[in-house]
Amino acid sequence: MSAESSFSLLGNLGAQDISFVHAYENPVMSEFIAASAGGFMVVGAVIVIALLSYYRGWRSLWFDWLTSVDHKKVGIMYIVVAFVMLARAIIEAVLMRYHQSIAVNDPGILSPDHFGQLFSTHGSIMIFFVAMPFVSGMMNYIMPQQIGARDVSFPLLNAISLWLTAAGAALVMISLVVGQFSTGGWTAYPPYTSIEFSPGEGVDYWIWSISLTSIGSTLTGLNFATTIYKNRAPGMTLFRMPLFCWTTLCTSILMIFAMAPLTIATLMLALDRYAGFHFFTNDSGGNMMNYANLFWLFGHPEVYILILPAFGVFSEVISTFSGKVIYGYKSLVFATMSIAVLSFTVWLHHFFTMGQGANVNAVFGIATMLIGVPTGVKVYDWLLTMVRGRIRLSTAMLFSIMFLVTFVLGGLTGVILANPPVDFAVHNSLFLVAHFHNMVIPGVLFGMIAGYQFWFPKAFGFRLSERWGKASFWCWSIGFYLTFMPLYALGLMGAMRRTVEWFRPEYLGWLQVSFAGAMLLLSGFLLLAVQLIVSVRQREQRRVPAGDPWDGRSLEWSNSAPPPEYNFAVIPQVEARDAFSWMKEHKKAYLSPDNYEDITVPKNSMVAPVIGVAAIVFGFALVWHIWWLAIVSFTGIWGTVIARSFVTETERVIPASEVRADHEAWLARVREAPVTPREREDTSDNVGRAEVLA
Amino acid sequence: MNTSPLSHPGLNLGSVDEYSHEEAEPVIFGFWIFLMADLVLFALLFATYATMSVQGQADGPSPADIFDLSSAFIGTMLLLASSITFGMASLALKYRADGPHLVLWLVLTFILGAGFIGMELRDFMTMIAQGAVPQLSGFLSSFYLLVATHGIHVTAGLIWMIVLLIQLRVMGRTTTVKLRIMRLALFWHMLDIVWVCIFSFVYLYGVTL
Question: Are B157 and B113 in contact (CB under 8 A)?
């Protein structure tokens, strides 16, 4: 950051802020690693651009994907963002574990500042740019199909949400090359993050990337809640919805209420930093405790925003691969709702040590333990679903089972931490780090990977390789235990989180085991990539055009794989819970409808990408104090919105004859398709027509 | 699909324009949800103000030292009146399919709203001239953020009103434009309610502290 305060066209941005220049000027290991990371990003971008040009993909990318408002494509793009960011965050995690494993009485390979940036980006990325887009993508792809809808209620708004999230992610990526990221952790507590103690652009990168994505998530919540309330197929009453839709609904409600505190907290922090306000400063009546309250008023519901959709995935996966109706449907619904409500009553347990007094702590401690009750109900329901089921140990199912075991363990340490006196002893130690990884890795990541394995054939028309999937599963599971169990021990031995150098030799062994585990986790991630490549190559033997490879129970399995743009040629009439199972059992599946009607679908629109790019520019301009550019891009965003409101031709009609031709052709293929018994599910016999027992 | 008499809370178009009425359900419902999310934002700003207005004064002035109640009262009256005129506009939208009433009421609403913003800016100028800038204390920071957030919302509403007046001219009273006016109406009345809270809690209660 340059020191002069005179007006400059580039604000505070100078050549020395580029990571390569920075490394050239300070040739040390830590800077070299930072520059390599920046280099990876640049090279990666160049390779993507080169490949797109080589395969002439630009047209397709723009017209089929970037400007699309189809909820299925938006969902897939969310998940692509999640995977790209996951790659970065895992590499950062491995780097940190490696650094810590050698930093016993030794400075290690990373400078303290660089280490600070790594844990800040790792946390921020994992929560906001891996878990959130993964969850949003999954809900986007699946939920409208499960309720028998053709799209979400507001398709363009949906694409704008995606682009705001992607803009936030892009800002974090840009910080690799231009300038530094925050060192204030993913929570960015002031006063450390105030301008006084964290001058420079780092915290500003955090503020604007998080603000963009939090607005995107609010709009997503609004959109999905409206879709579920207003867009269900006839007969799809709330209590006939698949559990994934229930969890989507609860997550949406949480998003509507819980994102605002984050938006407000980041806005206030920005005002403190940019305009000298006194919300969280040490002096002049500022109150930094207010930040902790605001942040966790968002932060705790956020945990459930992430985990509830994963619970939905597990419900679908366990029921399908046990070949049984889910046990205790209503209890699962009520448990989900209870968790959603309780999630707003526990935020204070993140800062028991802040000094609010014993009685207040006790209330929040008890509320925290209460959350264990509905969660316990869910675990029993899942277990009882498996009892006497015909269980098939597919990759998705293995991840679900490993989730059950591991999540219960994490829940138990959570109950331990819910005791304020215990929390005082282990607050901010590695015990805490182990605990929350023990919740979100099985709870969110395993859930999302299970969902990815489960619904991939629906989205792309071919099954993923089970062999590579299982190899990846073992790496993830064993890697998880090896990485995080030592952290529990270290936490109890007194090791604090975010420590850049240790002075206790007895930590060494534990830290080395933990690093080995991190390598296994990285292998698990790489094996997922291998699985994808192998499966794409073998896609002809893996195709499931009939659309029902796993003997699925809900409506999304009743159409082709991949589904047509309009999802359903004719909106289905729902007669029971597990609607598609009911159709199969009553011989109502794959029937030709009496008549077809024209279908109206939204046209592609470049509004969302324009807003997204303008948002990136806006964030970047604010980070570097380039005021003219901030004004231009802000005006651009709202100008686009206003201009769009004058466009009247936003929809196009697919004629009934075309729908009929496509649908009848597909139905003919399905009727010819061989019926696959479950034991031949993972062979090329499986073309997506399941054998129906009973 | 059979038309329900009320497809959403608030003024419905059911009896006079059945087609728009059916289209209204998801968009108006979605907008209510948006308003709810927006109200959470205001609730948090109020909560922040509540903690800071007393404990965050530092060496700066107290609310009683700087608030000009009569000026805020005039602003309040302008905004309340604008809510009434928007109510009249909504009735004109429903019952007077032709005629200038709708546009006239909207223009009147705009003038009153702009008057409110003018009064608010004037109050801010006066306070800043007295040295009560937001950088002075936590109390003033939270005061400016709360009141200005409301002010920015009203300004956004005014811009929206201009856009809709243009669209009424260019596109006519199509379903889309009608539904947009109905949503702006909800937005406008919500801002009115928020202002009633600001006036009572920040101004009236503030000067008693």
Answer: yes
